[in-house]
């Protein structure tokens, strides 16, 4: 009886191997589960400023003129640990975007060591009391929020992103692309 059950299991598994790629719905299911940047629908918090790992201060209002990628993470978050090096590689190739990693609620030294380990070569903003994460409505880590050149939130992704995928990065590149008059498409006031 055991041998017959084992044989049925092996035959069933063998049949699955032969048809695994034939499921026409599998790619659609995989695409549905991927994290994507979607339109921001929440309010835009004002007056956001955080200390950084270099001892300076990062104020979003001072960054007007270029789109900003705010990436909320924590060192204990496994998807964050995997994603941050990919974001760093993307950011290294884009001087038309400002990319800021925002650590949520951790000790400064731990954050600095982690940034060094994953190859993050820019300052990390420190949301020690989670006030900025709350102001932006961040409920999951990692979360990425993209601000346009006027510091208005435009896009959000809750979950990790594959920063090597051009379909992920295309909306950011579009926000950063300058028009012939030197402005970005989302920048309409004289400060940009």
Automatic annotation (TrEMBL):
Tell me where on the tree of life, at the top rank, the source sits: Bacteria
- InterPro entries given in the database record: AhpC/TSA, Thioredoxin-like_sf, Thioredoxin_domain, Thioredoxin_ResA/DsbE_sf
Q: Where is the Thioredoxin domain?
A: 38-177
> Could you tell me which species this protein originates from?
Rhodoplanes azumiensis
Q: What keywords appear on the UniProt entry?
A: Signal
**Protein name as catalogued:** TlpA family protein disulfide reductase
Signal peptide extent: 1-22
Query: Which CDD domains does the protein's record reference?
Result: TlpA_like_family (cd02966)
């Amino acid at each position: 009886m055991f041998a017959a059950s084992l044989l049925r299991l092996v035959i069933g598994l063998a049949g699955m191997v032969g048809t695994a790629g034939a499921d026409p719905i599998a790619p659609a299911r995989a695409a549905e589960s991927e994290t994507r940047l979607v339109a921001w629908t929440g309010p835009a918090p004002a007056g956001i400023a955080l200390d950084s790992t270099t001892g300076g201060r990062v104020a979003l209002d001072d960054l007007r003129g270029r789109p900003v990628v705010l990436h909320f993470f924590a060192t204990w978050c496994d998807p964050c640990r995997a994603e941050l090096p990919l974001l760093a590689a993307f950011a290294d190739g884009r001087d038309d975007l400002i990319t800021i990693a925002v650590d949520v609620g951790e000790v400064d030294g731990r954050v600095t060591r982690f940034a060094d380990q994953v190859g993050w070569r820019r300052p990390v903003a420190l949301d020690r009391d989670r006030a900025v994460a709350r102001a932006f409505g961040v409920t999951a880590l990692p979360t990425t929020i993209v601000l346009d050149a006027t510091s208005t939130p435009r896009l959000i992704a809750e979950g990790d992103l594959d920063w090597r995928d051009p379909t992920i990065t295309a909306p950011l590149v579009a926000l950063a692309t300058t028009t012939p008059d030197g402005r970005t498409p989302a920048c309409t006031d004289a400060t940009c």
